[in-house]
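Dear colleagues,

As part of the handover before I leave the project, I'm documenting each prediction I ran so the next person doesn't have to rerun anything. This entry is a single chain, and its sequence is reproduced below.
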Amino acid sequence: MIGTLIQKEDVDKFRFIPAEIDNSAPFMSKLQNALRLGNEFKSKTSIVFNTEDGPKRIETTVWSLTDRYIQIKNGILIPLRSLIEIDY
């Protein structure tokens, strides 16, 4: 899996930039599943996103999902257009 693993609490220290390919639409089904896994089973999802410092990866539960963002713990929002990879 690509991306440097960071703590989910450190996500807000990085500036998001769009991924080379906008995967928002193709990832929507996976994100909905990740949301269900997080809310119902407290299961974690591996999320890789693009930042100015290169790809970063976190292991976390997805708390909510909109058409533009995913929300993780502490109200941190990650833009869907920055997502590179989703795995659970």
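The chain is about 20% helix and 35% strand. The beta strands are 4-5, 45-51, 54-60, 64-65, 69-72, 76-79, 83-87.

All the best with the project,
I.
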